[in-house]
């Protein structure tokens, strides 16, 4: 798997999908409170508002990934890790 070719700092965060599962759990939690939506647009508005709220938390909060490690690998085009990153892109 390509994930194991990345540096350990990135691998720890990227190998799980906990972040996505947490967002889905929050949407389900809010959905259970409302139960019945009047139309499809109301569902989209709720989901959009939740995702905007989550994006603001992620932008203002502590960094989940330290991207300086990633950019350092990207600059060193001769390394094996840089070759793996090109495969991922």
Automatic annotation (TrEMBL):
Keyword match DNA-binding: yes
Domain of life of the source: Bacteria
The entry's keywords: DNA recombination, DNA-binding, Transposable element, Transposition
Role noted for this protein: Required for the transposition of the insertion element.
GO MF assignments: DNA binding; transposase activity
GO biological process: DNA transposition
Any single Pfam family the record assigns to this protein: Transposase_mut
Source taxonomy: Bacteria, Bacillati, Bacillota, Bacilli, Lactobacillales
UniProt keyword Acetylation, yes or no: no
Protein name: Mutator family transposase
């Amino acid at each position: 798997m390509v994930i194991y070719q990345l540096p350990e700092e990135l691998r720890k965060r990227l190998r799980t999908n906990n972040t996505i599962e947490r967002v889905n759990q929050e949407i389900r939690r809010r959905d259970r409170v409302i139960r019945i939506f009047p139309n499809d647009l109301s569902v989209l508005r709720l989901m959009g508002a939740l995702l905007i709220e989550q994006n603001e938390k992620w932008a203002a909060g502590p960094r989940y990934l330290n991207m300086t490690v990633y950019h350092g690998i990207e600059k060193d085009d001769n390394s094996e890790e840089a070759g793996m990153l090109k495969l991922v892109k």
